[in-house]
Automatic annotation (TrEMBL):
Keywords: Hydrolase, Signal
The UniProt record lists the keyword Hydrolase: yes
Species annotation: Thalassotalea nanhaiensis
GO terms of molecular function: hydrolase activity
Protein name: Alpha/beta fold hydrolase
UniProt keyword Hydrolase, yes or no: yes
PANTHER family named in the record: PHOSPHOLIPASE-RELATED
Signal peptide region: 1-20
InterPro entries documented for this protein: AB_hydrolase_fold, Hydrolase_4, MAG_DAG_Lipase
All copies of domain Serine aminopeptidase S33, residue ranges: 70-332
Length: 352
C-alpha cells in the first residue's frame, strides 16, 4: 500500500523533464506499472556461481542479447546484491547493452567467510579483485568479445580501481559512481581514524580469527526512509527494502575491524599505483555524500588527471548536485543525469 501511495503522489506532482538525451530510463511514476515487465525481462537472465580460489561460492548474473555487442560489467557496493539492481539492468539492456553483474564475496547471494554470516568481512580487498578477474576471464569475456565497460558503485569502485591498476587493458572505459576511494570519517581527523582502525584490528586479531564488528556496528537492522543517507527516491527505497525483506539471505550487518583495516590499506595502494591506470575513467560524485569521502575523490581525480589526462576531465569529478550516496537509485532528475553521464562516457570510448 505504501508503494502505491508513493506512486500516486509522484504522478500528481509530475516528473521533472528529462534532459535531452538519446537514452531512455525508467521513471519513478512508471515503476509500479513496470514491475511485471521488469520481472519478465529478469527471467531472461543467466544465474549461476563459480568457486573462488579459496572455494567460496561466488554468484553472478548475465543478461546477454544477440542483438547487443557492447557489454557493461557492474561492480556493487558493500552489502549489495544483484537482486537490488533489477531496474538498472533493465534500463541498461533497453539502451542496447549486455550486462554482467557479480555479488562480491561475503555479501548478497555469495558465500560468507565467517561463522557469523551477518558480519561485513573480508580479509584482504584484493580477494575481491582476484574473484573479479577469475569471473571476467573465464565467464564474461568469452561471451563479450567486443567493447567492455565497467560501472562501479561505492565499494565496487574500490574494487574496480584496483582491478584496472592491475589489469589496465581489460576495459574500454570505467565509470565510478560515488566510489569509496576512502571511507568518510566524519569530523575525526584522517590520521586518528586510521590509527584507531589499525590498532583495533591488530589487537582483535591477536584473540580471534573471527573478526569483531567495529565499534558501534552490529547485526543487520531494517532501514527506514526518513533521514536515510542513501537515496531520496522513496519508491526506489521501498522496493530495495522489500527485496531484502523477501530475501533475508541478502541481509548483512556492519563492518568488521578486518574489513576497515583492509579498506584503508587499499586506499594507500590506490594512490601509490595511479600511474598504472590507463583505462579512461569518469568519476561521478554525489554532492551530499556522507558515506564515502568526497575530498579523497577530488584528490584522486586531480592526481590521476595529471598522470592520465584522458581520465577525470579537467582533473575534477562530475558533481551530481543535490545527490545522496546511491546515484543509481536516486530520484529521477539525479539518476537520469548520472546514467546519461555514464552512458555518454561509454559511447565516447566504444569501438563499435
Amino acid at each position: 500500500m505504501r508503494i502505491f501511495l508513493i506512486l500516486i503522489y509522484t504522478a500528481l506532482l509530475g516528473s521533472m523533464p528529462a534532459m535531452s538525451s538519446p537514452f531512455r530510463f525508467t521513471q519513478e511514476h512508471e515503476l509500479i506499472a513496470q514491475q511485471s515487465v521488469i520481472e519478465a525481462f529478469w527471467q531472461s537472465g543467466e544465474f549461476a556461481s563459480f568457486k573462488s580460489y579459496d572455494q567460496l561460492d561466488i554468484h553472478y548474473a548475465l543478461f546477454f542479447s544477440p542483438t547487443n555487442t557492447q557489454c557493461i560489467v557492474v561492480s556493487l557496493g558493500r552489502s549489495e546484491s544483484y537482486l537490488k539492481y533489477k531496474e538498472l539492468i533493465f534500463d541498461l539492456a533497453n539502451n542496447g547493452y549486455n550486462v554482467a553483474i557479480i555479488d562480491h564475496r561475503g555479501q548478497g547471494l555469495s558465500e560468507r567467510e565467517l561463522t557469523d554470516k551477518s558480519k561485513g568481512y573480508v580479509g584482504d580487498f584484493n580477494d575481491y579483485v582476484v574473484d573479479m578477474h577469475q569471473w571476467l576471464e573465464n565467464i564474461v569475456k568469452p561471451k563479450c568479445n567486443h567493447d567492455l565497460f565497467m560501472l562501479a558503485h561505492s565499494m565496487g569502485g574500490t574494487i574496480a580501481t584496483r582491478y584496472v591498476q592491475q589489469f589496465p587493458q581489460t576495459f574500454n572505459a570505467l565509470v565510478l559512481s560515488s566510489p569509496m576511494i576512502a571511507i568518510d570519517g566524519g569530523h575525526i581527523p584522517d590520521w586518528l581514524s586510521k590509527a584507531v582502525i589499525k590498532t583495533s584490528h591488530f589487537i582483535n586479531a591477536l584473540f580471534t580469527e573471527q573478526s569483531a564488528y567495529f565499534f558501534g556496528y552490529g547485526p543487520y537492522k531494517e532501514k527506514v526512509f526518513a533521514g536515510n543517507d542513501l537515496m531520496q527516491s522513496e519508491i526506489r527505497f521501498q522496493l530495495f527494502k522489500q527485496t531484502y525483506e523477501q530475501n533475508p539471505q541478502l541481509q548483512l550487518g556492519g563492518v568488521t575491524f578486518s574489513w576497515l583495516n583492509s579498506a584503508i590499506e587499499t586506499e594507500k595502494l590506490i594512490f601509490e599505483n595511479l600511474a598504472d591506470m590507463q583505462t579512461p575513467i569518469l568519476l561521478l560524485q554525489s554532492e551530499h555524500d556522507t558515506v564515502v569521502s568526497n575530498v579523497k575523490q577530488l584528490h584522486f581525480c586531480q592526481q590521476l588527471n595529471a598522470l592520465h589526462p584522458q581520465s577525470c576531465p579537467n582533473g575534477q569529478p562530475v558533481v551530481i548536485k543535490s545527490a545522496l550516496h546511491e546515484l543509481l537509485f536516486e530520484k529521477d532528475e539525479i539518476r537520469n543525469e548520472a546514467l546519461n553521464q555514464a552512458l555518454t562516457w561509454f559511447n565516447q570510448h566504444g569501438q563499435n
